[in-house]
């Protein structure tokens, strides 16, 4: 599985619109926060997703894109995205190839987690498992810490 210092794996998943996304290119322009939820539109996952939604401008201001990854179908993700006004793309990985590569597959379940990749795709931080309410906060604090050490 992908460990700190490794690059984003070269795998293709679909976004919530059903378009192919090459995972290895996600961090070509900016850093990336990838957070994983076990199931779209369930209480814990919604708490985590809305947490990222509420601090989304903070991530973009720091030069990071946010993506939500789950094994749900693009149509289920679109429904959830619309319902909760989620401002970031949702990635669908029904075969759990990317989820597995990240080390977050647990049989036919997904471990709630998040991963912070720098621009260029190198993994800097990962949290498996993580509490829904803590995930956005921890990811943001980690990135703010990077900015502090970079200056």
From TrEMBL:
Enzyme's top EC category: oxidoreductase
Protein's recorded name: thioredoxin-dependent peroxiredoxin
Swiss-Prot/TrEMBL keywords: Antioxidant, Disulfide bond, Nucleus, Oxidoreductase, Peroxidase, Redox-active center
Organism from which the protein derives: Punctularia strigosozonata (strain HHB-11173) (White-rot fungus)
Recorded family membership: Belongs to the peroxiredoxin family. BCP/PrxQ subfamily.
Assembly, per entry: Monomer.
Gene Ontology MF terms: thioredoxin peroxidase activity
Compartment(s) where it occurs, according to its Swiss-Prot or TrEMBL record: Nucleus
Residues in Thioredoxin domain copies: 2-148
InterPro entries registered for this protein in UniProt: AhpC/TSA (IPR000866), Peroxiredoxin_BCP/PrxQ (IPR050924), Thioredoxin-like_sf (IPR036249), Thioredoxin_domain (IPR013766)
Database matches in Pfam families: AhpC-TSA
Residue ranges the record marks as coiled coil: none
GO biological process: cell redox homeostasis; cellular response to oxidative stress
EC number, as in UniProt: 1.11.1.24
Catalytic activity: a hydroperoxide + [thioredoxin]-dithiol = an alcohol + [thioredoxin]-disulfide + H2O
Gene Ontology CC annotation, any one: cytoplasm
